[in-house]
Design a protein that fits this description.
By secondary structure, the chain is of the alpha+beta class. It folds into two domains: about 230 residues, P-loop containing nucleotide triphosphate hydrolases (Rossmann fold); about 120 residues, OB fold (Dihydrolipoamide Acetyltransferase, E2P) (Beta Barrel). The protein is about 25% helix and about 35% strand. The chain has eight helices and 20 strands. The strands form four sheets. It has a six-stranded mixed β-sheet, sandwiched between helices. A five-stranded antiparallel β-sheet has the order 13-12-11-14-20. Strand 17 and strand 18 form a beta hairpin. Helix 2 crosses helix 3, helix 2 runs parallel beside helix 4 and helix 4 packs parallel to helix 5. It is globular and about 75 Å long.
Length: about 375
């Protein structure tokens, strides 16, 4: 076995005819913030439950710090879980909620007081120690739930959609707090979410799951910029797909004859051959939409063609355009880095130049 801290080794779990987790293998480093990301039913929570000891794999093994924990009951694993519904005891004060597991472990009173007071200070909740859960906001309750799970320093903290019950602004604030808490405690965090933004913001690495399998395991930037499959490209953020066939290869670049668009060039990092069918993923923020033609480019020729603006959505920090050519649509984002009212505006039905650099598209093989 490798020396990785946490290992899932060819793990499979079935529920009747449904294979929830299908021969999944990956490892997590000690102290890493690792996310399991995917749509509902992809197997991420089942993986979390198997790690916590609440489900047993039908095949495969789970190792933690070199020890096989596959058959250990939950109470013999130093693994704690934070749920989205907080699961705080309503009749206990915040202090007593956090101290609960330490009292169960029959820890000395002085040590309990020190640990609880220290973690209350870390989550900036010392002044609320003697309140009850009903007197706290959603964000405060979530901080207490995290503190209770961390107070006796587990080997792994499991977070199952912990921010799903919070509103957008509070969720964004809690993302920063979670990141800070992780940095302070240095414990391995395994985070389950269907929210791409959460995973991208927090994670050292992300495993993208689909139908019980890991489609890609990489850092956030690699997953976003270089998706391993059409599913990953479409699930992580917005993208445009141009489907077509490779009609020419010239060094590191190839030419793709696309359906509904002129031929476009792309960096051929996958070394796909002439005649192969591909899907080219181009993120909306990579595409420029201008009334004037683009300036001359050095190196590989940019992709540029005329198109028509069919829809516009103003979002404050950017405007999103849908442009159409031969019945096919592309989405493009224009960031507002300058004062917008001083610029010539693009409006509905304008004929515009659409352009991007060949390096800014990423090819996935068509299925």
């Amino acid at each position: 076995m490798s020396n990785e801290f946490l290992i899932f080794d060819h793990v499979t779990k079935r529920f009747g005819a449904l294979t929830a987790v299908d021969d999944v293998s990956f490892s997590v480093a000690k102290g890493e913030f690792f996310s399991l990301l995917g749509p509902s039913g992809c197997g991420k929570t089942t993986l979390l439950r198997m790690l916590g000891g609440f489900e047993r794999p039908d095949s495969g093994r789970i190792y933690l710090e070199g020890k096989d924990i596959t058959d250990l009951p939950p109470n013999q694993r130093r693994i704690h879980t934070v749920f989205q519904n907080y699961a705080l005891f309503p009749t206990m004060t915040i202090w007593d909620n956090i101290a609960f597991s330490l009292k169960l472990a029959k820890m000395e009173k002085g040590e309990i007081e020190e640990k609880v007071d220290d973690i209350l200070e870390m989550i900036q909740m010392s002044e609320h120690a003697w309140k009850y859960p009903s007197q706290l906001s959603g964000g405060q309750k979530q901080r207490v739930a995290i503190a209770r799970a961390l107070v006796d320093r587990p080997q792994v903290l499991l977070l199952d959609e912990p921010l799903a019950a919070l509103d957008l602004k509070l969720r964004q604030h809690m993302l920063l707090e979670l990141d800070t808490i992780h940095d302070q405690v240095g414990i391995t965090f395994l985070y389950v979410t269907h929210d791409q933004g959460e995973a991208m913001s927090l994670s050292d690495r992300i495993a993208v799951l689909n139908r019980g399998k890991v489609e890609q395991l990489d850092g956030p930037a690699k997953i976003y910029e270089a998706p391993a499959s059409r599913f990953v490209a479409s699930f992580i953020g917005d993208t445009n797909f141009l489907s077509g066939e490779i009609v020419a290869v010239d060094g590191d670049y190839c030419t793709i004859q696309c359906e509904g668009f002129p031929a476009v060039k792309a960096f051929n990092d996958r070394k796909i051959k002439v005649g192969d069918s591909v899907d080219l993923s181009v993120r909306p923020e990579k595409i420029r939409v201008t009334l004037a033609p683009p300036p001359p480019e050095k190196g590989a020729s940019i992709n540029v063609f005329l198109s028509t603006v069919k829809d516009i959505v103003y979002q404050g920090v950017y405007t999103k355009y849908w442009i159409e050519s031969s019945g096919k649509r592309l989405a493009a984002l224009k960031p507002h880095s300058r004062f917008l009212l001083d610029q010539e505006s693009i409006t509905w039905n304008d004929e515009v130049f659409v352009w991007w650099h060949p390096d800014d598209g990423y090819m996935v093989e068509a299925k």
